[in-house]
């Protein structure tokens, strides 16, 4: 397949590498010049489950792809949420009538952006358990195993996703069809919608927050807002299950001493956050559905205040 | 008059000094041993509008006053909010049938604590514009001018407060009767209920917060909760006036670069905050009056989380 990895950070690098190794015709598109230069000069490197590998994969800056002759069968979206619209704008000449677009971004409501460029029948929403890290420009660190759940938003449903699933599975990416992808997406968003914003605003790791005597009440209030919005979209959430998953983040023996990604973005790297696509998305949808979402709104506002106070970019 | 200053920090020291200088029989009661020792050994010192003064005023630790023979005509309460109940418990043997109790604490709802010890007819609520600082134990810094508004909660009203007003005015403390003290208290609480919690949780000075593009929306949401609760208690708030006063805190030319007192307490001095008596009081009263107060609740929870994460005491 002709595949565009749109956003070739840590996760995009993993998918690009594995799909390239499975003999697909992969190109990477990204906006980080230093990363692009390294991949161009020395190939995409990775420590792949302990083995050092290098693969020559074409890579382009997203500002320079509008004239490239490449007819994509599949686009996999892995940008930061706020970069999605711009990325689709840049690559739209490579998206044809039959190009499937698989969205694996964190957060909620990306289909509202994608459908400006792609018919619903070609949009596939996914949720992945794969992980990945970058050691530096051009160098990924890829350990462990994962999987992908995905669902086509068109009337064809499963039929329209079959080729994509087969392609991902040839690359050992463990994809399977889901009739209920929104529930998985909302469930993951609940974890991000609590841990990310709260640990960032409190300048705390997950255990530090989770061990306070207000953690339960705060988390329940936020999850209730997510669940109310999700219910309107027929994405039922098992709240006990969600709360249990959130509590597992507090465990000091596993991931409790880590800071979530938003903390890394804002507090460590002084970058703007994805809050508008997590809690902020619940606020927008809440307005649309006439559901009160004060906790998501206040948390979104506080994170934006913090971004501005720190001069994040 | 026989006067107990219950809580002899910065403001208590100002009132104690000025009332002592006006020939009242003042005693100070406090819980900070080093401060008490300094006052006992060298007198209460102050830089009083540029002049260095010292006054010998009796001072007692609040744990040691239960056996003192002192029949108070007036008690002026200046403790931290969370210390109020305990202080009243300690000094209650000095409070008689005719002792007036003037409460000048920041925050809301202290009358609910005081009325456990004192009949309503003897409770006087006040709001003061005086300021004061401590340079260290036993040494106050007292600059500028101020005033006090006060109101008696009993049926006698003004009549029951006249002697107290006269006494305060002999000491040049500029007291006057108000028929609407709750409105002033709520107005001041709105300033504290926004600047204190928000600057503390955002680790920001007042200008830094005020200049963000979310400041207005956050402040309006919080003030609306205060106003809804105040309205039930017939304390009308002029919301535009309150918002204007809050915005004046953002001015970099005046106080905008300062951190509010709660920031000093928690972030600088690692002490527990008074949030339960500001935003937390609105939450309690909101429950009682069936008014939703999600912003005050979430802010109160976040401050408590921060206290616990920092191990404040």
Automatic annotation (TrEMBL), chains A, B:
EC number: 1.1.1.169
Name of one Pfam family that matches: ApbA
Cellular component aspect of the GO annotation: cytoplasm
Domain Ketopantoate reductase C-terminal positions: 180-307
Pathway involvement of the protein, from the record: Cofactor biosynthesis; (R)-pantothenate biosynthesis; (R)-pantoate from 3-methyl-2-oxobutanoate: step 2/2
UniProt key word Oxidoreductase: yes
Catalytic activity line of the entry: (R)-pantoate + NADP(+) = 2-dehydropantoate + NADPH + H(+)
SUPFAM superfamilies in alphabetical order: 6-phosphogluconate dehydrogenase C-terminal domain-like, NAD(P)-binding Rossmann-fold domains
Record-given protein name: 2-dehydropantoate 2-reductase
Organism: Vagococcus fluvialis bH819
């Amino acid at each position: 397949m002709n595949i565009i990895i749109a956003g070739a950070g840590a996760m995009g690098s993993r998918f690009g590498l594995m799909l390239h190794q499975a003999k697909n015709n992969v190109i990477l598109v990204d906006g980080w010049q230093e990363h692009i230069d390294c991949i161009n000069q020395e190939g995409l490197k990775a420590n792949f489950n302990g083995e050092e590998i290098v693969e020559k994969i074409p890579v382009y800056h997203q500002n320079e792809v509008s004239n490239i002759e490449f007819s994509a069968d599949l686009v996999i979206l892995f940008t930061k949420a706020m970069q999605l619209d711009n990325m689709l704008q840049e690559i739209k000449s490579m998206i044809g009538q039959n190009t499937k677009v698989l969205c694996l971004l964190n957060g909620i409501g990306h289909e509202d952006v994608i459908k400006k460029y792609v018919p619903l029948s070609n949009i596939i929403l996914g949720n992945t358990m794969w992980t990945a890290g970058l050691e530096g420009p051009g160098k990924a660190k890829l350990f462990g195993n994962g999987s992908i759940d995905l669902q086509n938003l068109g009337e064809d449903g499963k039929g329209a996703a079959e080729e994509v699933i087969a392609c991902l599975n040839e690359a050992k990416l463990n994809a399977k069809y889901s009739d209920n992808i929104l529930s998985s997406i909302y469930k993951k968003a609940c974890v991000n919608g609590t841990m990310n914003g709260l640990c960032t605003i409190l300048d705390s790791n997950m255990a530090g927050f989770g061990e306070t005597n207000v953690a339960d009440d705060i988390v329940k209030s936020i999850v209730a807002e997510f669940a109310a919005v999700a219910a309107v979209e027929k994405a039922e959430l098992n709240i006990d299950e969600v709360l249990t998953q959130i509590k597992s983040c507090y465990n000091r023996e596993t991931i409790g001493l880590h800071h979530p990604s938003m903390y890394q973005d804002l507090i460590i790297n002084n970058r703007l956050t994805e809050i508008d696509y997590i809690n902020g998305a619940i606020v927008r949808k809440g307005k649309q559905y006439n559901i009160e979402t004060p906790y998501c709104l206040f948390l979104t506002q506080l994170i934006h205040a913090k971004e501005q106070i720190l001069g994040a970019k």
